[in-house]
Structures are given as structure tokens and as C-alpha cells.
């Protein structure tokens, strides 16, 4: 069964994008392409508190998955 992501509500699409951004930010940190300040600056760009919380949870998830302290 395939799912067409373009049919999702905009809030769900935004969560998918925030999850991707969190994954990429942690990957950059792991590869030493950026420092920990990247995670803070990216989170500060998010105005909606619920979205910011989701982003920070995603950061923690990817830190565990990628083994980043």
C-alpha cells in the first residue's frame, strides 16, 4: 500500500519536514560538519511552540539512533 504524502494535511506535512530537518542536523553534528550551536539555532527559528517541541523530540530520537552524545 502506497501513501501519497501530498494528500496529507499541512500540519502532518510540516511534521515530516521537521523530522527530516532534525535528522539532517544530527547527521551534520555526527559528521563534524556543524557544532551543537546548530541544533539551538535551528530550534530557535521555529515560532510555534508545539512544532519546536516536536523538533526537539526528533533531535533526541536521532541522537539516540545515530549514537551522538
From TrEMBL:
Domain of life: Bacteria
Descriptive protein name: Pyridoxamine 5-phosphate oxidase
Naturally occurring in which organism (per UniProt): Vibrio rumoiensis 1S-45
Species classification: Bacteria, Pseudomonadati, Pseudomonadota, Gammaproteobacteria, Vibrionales
Pfam hit, one: DUF3283
